[in-house]
Write a structure and sequence with these properties.
Strand content of chain B: 15-25%
Low-confidence stretches of chain A: none
Number of helices of chain A: 24
Structural class of chain B: alpha+beta
Radius of gyration of chain B: 19 Å
CATH topology of one domain in chain B: Alpha-Beta Plaits
Largest interface: A-B, 76 and 49 residues
Helix content of chain A: 40-55%
Mean pLDDT of chain A: 96
Number of strands of chain A: 18
Radius of gyration of chain A: 22 Å
Number of strands of chain B: 9
CATH architecture of one domain in chain B: 2-Layer Sandwich
Shape of chain B: globular
Oligomer: heterodimer
Strand order of the largest sheet of chain A: 2-1-6-3-4-5
CATH topology of the largest domain in chain A: Aldehyde Ferredoxin Oxidoreductase,  A, domain 1
Strand content of chain A: 15-25%
Distance between the termini of chain B: 51 Å
Largest sheet of chain B: 2 strands, antiparallel
Shape of chain A: globular
Chain lengths: 578, 183
């Protein structure tokens, strides 16, 4: 398997392909190769929205070849946090990259006018996108499909107006319904005048031993479709956890003022499935079909005239734009998700920014003069829809501040105690206990998926763990996910890829690794990421936790600041940073 | 209500005796082996034919396409798959699953002037690679689009082996037994 990188310079319009066998041998691929390329391409202090800031997309040795190895990782300097930007998307992108023959793409520079890049195998064209600049993310896909080849095997990734207008938490929409959602890759695209990438290819992959390949493939496939836990992603989907967490007092509600939502059942996964779910979709190469699509039917006249929108939903958007904003109806949540889809906003950050603004308005830190009379009040879906559009249009200083994230807005207007961000990244939907808080704070991209602290809290609820044990678990997950994210698999199927299965599947594509080598690599990848974070100014010893986390009961009871501080101290010590 | 939190990222796999049946129960469609005895009793000779039984259930995983190329060529390829899952207006639209219909009077074989596609008495169309010139007339003759030229510019022809059926998690595909003489 040739392991090549495609370099594209938007300033000069030039591109070239380079073989980097050494890089992939040393760092596997995916996030391992991604962080090394970021170190090569992004010198200390680079402005994340400057032409010098790179965009790196990478896949790993199993993508397109084995089941549920369906993700692509984007590595960049985050315009939101100013340090490591790392985001994962499914859809068809990893497959398109595989068959186009590029295991990574590095994009540098800035096009002199709105452009999109068309990649067809080794052919790269930079095309004029002036006529589609300003068009929403969904219609951008519709238009580009008409102009580009590769039906059924291509991937179209694009930004909406949020990315164009440099909203610091703008995402990139991947093949409709999937996203590089977090940490502002959309703004990086926008800063480069880059509206979209269309990728397709016709190559194939030869495996060293087809018989062995089939044997391993069949085993992994069987495990995937026959696993009890995967069935839950297939059935109700991730939103099944709304009711569960609500019952456990772990569902952030109204900007974490509460941790359970009295109206929770109206927005639970069961309700969505019963009344709105119309179909499920898969990323290419995954038999599960966890992408849940709801039909949002709304009347636009009194004469039985309707508009129907198909909206994908999951746990996180239902938390961030639902319980977190006090929205009591599934329709209301779907409407807000749809606005974010069209604008190209990260739903999680957007919801947390709005919940902060709602509370800040209630407390008088801001007034209707700042909000331009938009009613930002719990459960006011129309008000929130308008506010999201204003964040993108930025008609005044207040909305400009909201477009820079909750940390920035709270710095300017006050209310830091309830500005729900960790490491400047708006938090995910878990108030499960100390491991969730510490996990997001120490995580390389300040995501709940860095080390699944919420899951450690759950385990601790069943069988108590002391702070040290929790920290050990976080470190173990931090490191092992570095490997899995280098492959690049879907975290939902992480259980399928046991160490033995990872070794076997790598062996089937001609890569020989031992368990010890993998564990060592996981740790080294983590260290390289922290090197970049520290270089860009992240200091764990000075990172703060919003006081709200300590004021609202969690699924593990009240969280004491001392517990979090003790865990952070232990974490630094065990990482050798004390 | 289910009180157990589903771990959204650290899934645990339960293996062994507790494993459940595959995702969709409808998948247990009649398989040729089960019908063999019955077919023999009824005298008329039967052959197997792939059928898109429930296209609306497709989730777009492309598992069937990979199964086809993996089985046929031992490689990982979309181009070399005889079965095709196409999107109509992106994944917001419906999927179209294209398979060879096993025509009684196959236009692909009729279009071939080299005798590379030959209709056998048992109804199957077999491909003789050595006779093929890669002209692509067969591709044009099939309105369904079920025969296309692969990476070697040779037609990729479905042989109705059913390898894809086992890798469809939603029972979209079935293998049916049909009488050779048609009907």
């Amino acid at each position: 398997m040739l392991r090549k990188i495609l370099y594209i310079d938007l300033t000069s319009g030039e591109s070239f392909v380079q073989e980097r066998q050494d890089l992939f041998e040393d760092w596997m691929g995916g996030t391992g190769a991604g962080i090394k390329l970021l170190q090569e391409e992004c010198p200390s202090g680079t402005d994340p929205l400057s032409p010098e800031a790179p965009i790196i997309l990478s896949i790993g040795p199993l993508n397109g070849i084995f089941p549920v190895a369906t993700k692509t990782v984007a590595t960049f300097k985050s315009p939101l946090t100013g340090e490591l930007g790392e985001s994962y998307a499914g859809g068809r992108l990893s497959l398109a990259l595989r068959f186009a023959g590029h295991e990574a793409i590095v994009i540098r520079g800035r096009a002199d006018r709105p452009s999109y890049v068309s990649i067809n195998d080794s052919k790269v064209e930079i095309k004029d996108a002036t006529s589609i600049w300003g068009i929403d993310a969904q219609n951008t896909g519709v238009i580009l499909r008409e102009h580009e080849t590769g039906v059924g095997r291509r991937s179209i990734i694009r930004i909406g107006p949020a990315g164009e207008n440099l909203v610091r938490y703008a995402g990139v929409v991947v093949d409709t319904y999937r996203h590089f959602g977090r940490l502002g890759l959309g703004a990086t695209f926008g800063s480069k005048n880059l509206k979209a990438l269309v990728i397709s290819g016709t190559e194939h992959v030869d495996v060293p031993d087809p018989g062995r390949y089939k044997e391993v493939y069949n085993r992994l496939y069987k495990t995937t479709v026959q696993t009890d836990v995967m069935e839950k992603y297939h059935d109700i989907g991730t939103s099944v956890n709304i009711n569960v967490l609500n019952w456990l007092k772990g569902l952030p509600t109204k900007n974490f003022i509460l941790s359970s939502f009295p109206e929770g059942e109206k927005i639970g996964g069961e309700m969505f499935a019963e009344k709105y779910l119309i179909r499920r979709l898969s990323c290419a190469g995954c038999p599960i079909g966890c992408v849940h699509i709801a039909a949002l039917k709304s009347a636009f006249s009194t004469h039985h005239e309707f508009e129907v929108r198909k909206v994908s939903y999951d746990y996180e958007p239902i938390y961030s734009l639902g319980s977190n904003l006090g929205v009591e109806s599934a329709e209301g949540i779907l409407q807000l998700i749809d606005v974010c889809e069209r604008m190209g906003l990260d739903v999680m950050s957007a919801g947390v920014v709005l919940s902060w603004a709602t509370e800040a308005l209630e407390k008088g830190l801001i007034t209707t003069r700042e909000t331009l009379d938009v009613p930002m009040k719990w459960n006011n879906v129309e008000g929130y829809s308008k506010a999201l559009e204003n964040i993108v249009k930025a008609p005044n200083e207040f909305y400009q501040a909201l477009a820079r994230g909750v940390d920035y807005a709270a710095e300017k207007y006050g209310g830091r105690d309830f500005a729900m961000a960790l490491g400047k990244n708006e938090v995910s939907g878990y108030h499960t206990g100390p491991a969730s808080i510490v996990g997001q704070l120490v995580g390389v991209r300040h995501s709940h998926l860095d080390n699944a602290g919420y899951s450690i809290d759950q385990k601790a609820a069943k069988k108590p763990m002391d702070p040290e044990r929790m920290v050990d678990e976080l470190i173990k997950e931090d490191n092992s996910r570095g490997i899995f994210n280098s492959l690049v698999g879907c975290l939902f199927a992480r259980g399928v890829y046991t160490e033995e299965n990872i070794i076997d599947s790598l062996g089937a594509v001609g890569i020989s690794k031992t368990g010890e080598e993998l564990q060592d690599l996981g740790k080294r990848i983590f260290d390289e990421k922290y090197k970049f974070k520290v270089q860009e100014g992240f200091d764990l010893s000075r990172a703060s936790v919003p006081r709200r986390f300590y004021e609202t009961v969690s699924a593990s009871g009240m969280v004491a600041p001392e517990t979090v501080e003790e865990m952070l101290r232990l974490y630094r010590k065990k990482r050798g940073w004390s | 209500m289910n009180r157990k939190l589903v771990d959204l990222a650290g899934t645990k796999v339960e293996t062994g005796a507790e494993t459940k049946s595959p995702v969709s129960p409808e998948k247990e469609a009649p398989r040729p082996t089960q019908e063999k005895a019955e077919a023999a009793a009824h005298k008329p000779k039967m052959h197997r034919r792939l059928k898109v039984a429930h296209p609306e259930r497709c989730i777009g995983c492309l598992g069937c396409m990979f199964a086809c190329s993996r089985t046929r060529t031992g490689t990982v390829s979309l181009q070399d798959s005889a079965i095709k899952v196409q999107t109509q207006g992106g994944i917001e639209g419906d999927f179209r699953v294209v398979v060879c219909r096993g025509c009684e009077d196959p236009p692909c074989a009729r279009a071939c002037t080299e005798g590379a596609l030959e209709k056998r008495p048992d109804g199957r169309v077999v491909f003789h690679k050595d006779l093929c010139t890669g002209c692509g007339k067969c591709e044009k003759a099939c309105l369904v689009g079920a025969i296309t030229l692969g990476k070697e510019k040779m037609p990729i022809k479905c042989i109705h082996c059913g390898a894809c059926v086992d890798f469809c998690p939603h029972g979209v595909l079935e293998l049916e037994e049909v009488p050779v003489s048609g009907g």
